[in-house]
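Sample A.
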Amino acid sequence: MKNALLPDNFDFQSNLPLWTLDQSRKMIYREFIFVDFKQAFQFMTLCAQYAEQIDHHPDWSNAWNKVAVNLSTHSSNGLTELDMQMARAMDLFALQL
């Protein structure tokens, strides 16, 4: 079930090595750095389209070539498979650019 909380022993380091777990805020985060604003915006566009498809939207901000992302499932008050799915997709989108 995609909205079920991940187990307490979920191995974030193995599954998402580029992301950082913030247990106190029940989220994962990562900063993506691109060559310029255009590439960062392309990344955000790909992510936004995918987020609409899976109905799971990131909390993020953009400053020129950087995109800072926080993922959490607010309706479940924690991390779920939807967050893992979105993080993996974002990692792949970043590699494409």
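Sample B, a different protein:
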Amino acid sequence: MTVTHELAEILDDVDRPGDFFASGRAEFLAPRLEVEGVGPIALPLLPTQAKQLIKAATRPPYGRGADTVVDTKIRRTWQIEASRVSIGGKHWAKTLDGIVARAAEGLGVAEPVTAELYKLLVYDKGSFFVSHRDTEKSPGMFATLVLALPSQSKGGELVVHHKYREARLDLACEEPSEIAFAAFYADCVHEVLPVTSGCRATLVFNLVRKAKGKAPEPPSYEAEAEKVTELLRGWVGDKVPAKVDTADADGAFPEKLVIPLAHAYTPAELAFDKLNGADAAVARLLVKAAPQAGCDVHLALFAVWECGSAEYSGRENWHNRRGRRDSGVEEDAREFEVIEVHDGSKTLSDWRRPDGATTTLGELPIEDDEVSPPDALDDMEPDEEHFREATGNEGASFERTYARAALVIWPSNRILAVLNQGGLEATLPFLEELIGKW
């Protein structure tokens, strides 16, 4: 068993400190809710006032690539901006704080969190929103919180996807003394199924960390940390555990280890103290174990580009069409199938250190034997995928890209060998920094 297999098996035992979603119901004393242009709103929501809200609302847009468009085939609901919504009352602050605390705990966030009202959404019969991801709407935002106000409605379930898991959350809440809530990390793909009857109003909040602070505190993984330390020591040549063959089939040793993360991160949110869920737990373990084995650990963004041959399939998958329309995939892409990858590249960039210090590390390639587990990149969904029809003597072709984040480890005394993988563009800035220090 190679070091990439063994490391993956150890880290697979690290449970997430929380989950990718949290949901529930809370006791609710109706607040003082007013909307500009409508006036005070009674709860549970009455059909007559629902019509007034819709009359005062607008159709919300959504992002399609670099553009923002309105398309009721993708998103059919109504929105009222936060600036037009006033919500207060004697018990409201306590109610909201309690819900935010429960949501943060369910997501595995131990540090202080605040909720910023983003919009009031109104879903009448037939309203829905197809699969999409939320964008980062304010600095420090890491999740979305939805509060479903009491109303008589059915359907409209919130479906949240993360990797191979799915959570189907029912936000229908007819009981006047309760409010339903759901929270999920902003990078999760989610959709709102059609409302089948009645009308529902939801308050949407951005969940924001109040300060940088520490990452969510995972459980103690002392045994796993010791196993990782032992494995890494064998990898750097200190002592090779008998059951582990740190070399690959050709007898070569990987220069570095690349562990893809479970969640997606923008460059602005990529930091050790901002990791979510299981990523926070794994990073905390590696930051502890790696130095004891004489290794460095970094965070980085990795990009994958592939191109190759395709063929016309003659069919179209409606589920994929609906779920991936916002991802940059061309509309006719579902009529083709990938046959073979002819060329591609895998690179690491945008490096982050555990202590937050700056680094001169540039773009480095990812070798096939460096990924842990070895098949971690096999089933990734592309961020963009473009198919081209056959022309002349050329058959159909495709081109696709992926963008994710990863933890990267290498032996401290092999830094120059690692940088040499990227050529002079990677080694010269590092050597210049060393000369400056000397």
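Observation for Sample B: Confidence is low (pLDDT under 50) at residues 214-218, 238-245, 317-334.
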